[in-house]
Specification:
- By secondary structure, the chain is of the alpha/beta class.
- It has a domain at 6-13 and 68-110 and 234-446: Rossmann fold.
- The chain is built from 19 helices and 15 strands.
- It has helices at residues 43-46, 52-59, 69-75, 87-93, 114-126, 140-152, 162-167, 169-177, 191-199, 207-220, 233-239, 241-253, 268-282, 300-303, 346-353, 364-378, 387-403, 421-428, 439-446; strands at residues 6-7, 17-19, 64-66, 83-85, 98-103, 131-136, 155-161, 181-185, 224-226, 259-263, 289-295, 305-310, 319-324, 358-362, 408-413.
- Strand 12 (305-310) and strand 13 (319-324) form a beta hairpin.
- The longest helix has 17 residues, at 387-403.
- Its EC number is 4.2.1.20.
Amino acid sequence: MSDTTQYFLEQSRLPRQWYNIMADFPEPMAPVLHPGTRQPVAPSDLAPLFPDTLIAQEMTAERYVEIPAAVLDIYKMWRPSPLIRARRLEKALDTPARIYFKYEGVSPAGSHKPNTAVAQAYYNAEAGTRRLTTETGAGQWGSSLAFAGSLFGLEVQVFQVKVSYQQKPYRQALMRTYGAECIPSPSNLTNAGRAILAENPDHPGSLGIAISEAVELAAQADDTKYALGSVLNHVMLHQSIIGQEALLQMEMAGDDPDILIGCTGGGSNFAGLVFPFLGEQLRGGRSRRILAVEPAACPTLTQGRFAYDFGDTAHLTPLTKMHTLGSSFTPPGFHAGGLRYHGMGPQVSHALQLGLIEARAYAQTGCFEAAVQFARHEGIVPAPECSHAVKAAIDEALRCKEEGQGQTILFNLSGHGHFDMQAYIDFFDGKLEDREYDAAAAEVALAQLPQLG
């Protein structure tokens, strides 16, 4: 094996199709239900929110979907992204494990999110949409959609979870630089926001509330559509370019991962890396351990219930079967804002139910310790969200050391933390605390799950 550190694909080898895990699941997923009738949704039910092409991608069972030439041209601004061997970290850990990471922080917005933002903006522009509304937690998604909207001449209105809006002012600045409007949520612009503020004027916000606000505005205007940065099937589809590139790059490295790791909030960066590998496994390829890592303060996969639930707090969205803590659950304001969501993507949830993946939860101080250790050896400062994947990779490498196993670990470093430095300042100053999971509040929220006859 060579001493190469970085593996770059030629742009001529950039995947021309997205991969769809739906084609290879051994059991079908539960249908998405209409919030009113509780019957399986039809394409027309989703038309107020999404253009026809995205609705078709949401529902398709085809294994591959062609990537439009205009989207590929924009992808080439930063794709293929590098696969990097973390040799210095391996040496520091004195582990026989080989650690690789797929680095998505090279995109203009600094994360994996433009992979779907560009696609969604393209399809909306093709359909004549004038404005997109969306939510964002940490701001990675809002920044990415703002970037994509600027390329296709779309207005973008972003509802950012209030606690993250206050924690991350430079994400707001980036969104505004790309031409988007950024609004702290809950806000007074929507019925959903006003109802929340009437009960609690100091509400910290949640992704569920921000989704409600964005969906409400999109449903009211014919020239406006809604864009979602995670959770839904078409988002996972677009993110599959990460894992498809990684498959080719691992071949270049002459190696093959035994363990795949990604952080999970809604599931997009995890699915983006993992699903192409999992698809190969389901088609008869080798088995691998796959770890989905989430925050202990919002443990959707490890503590949530697999049930039908709304994707938003105001119950405007369709019902999907997923791991959930209840749509009214508000996670505490820890710094990994992109992972503060009450539910998990239905495809990721389905994979867990089938026993195809494992789930693990970490508290935030341990994740920041791992992120700092990683930065001091590999030079990249991870975003708080993907620090969870970094910690899991380090833990697995140390396990390999204890057991004397030279396994290969691959994780998705889904973004850099350059706009999250206040979180690192709090960590170094001893102000960063592990936030507790409010099990009692989750039980109250779960008691309100929709009852299906």
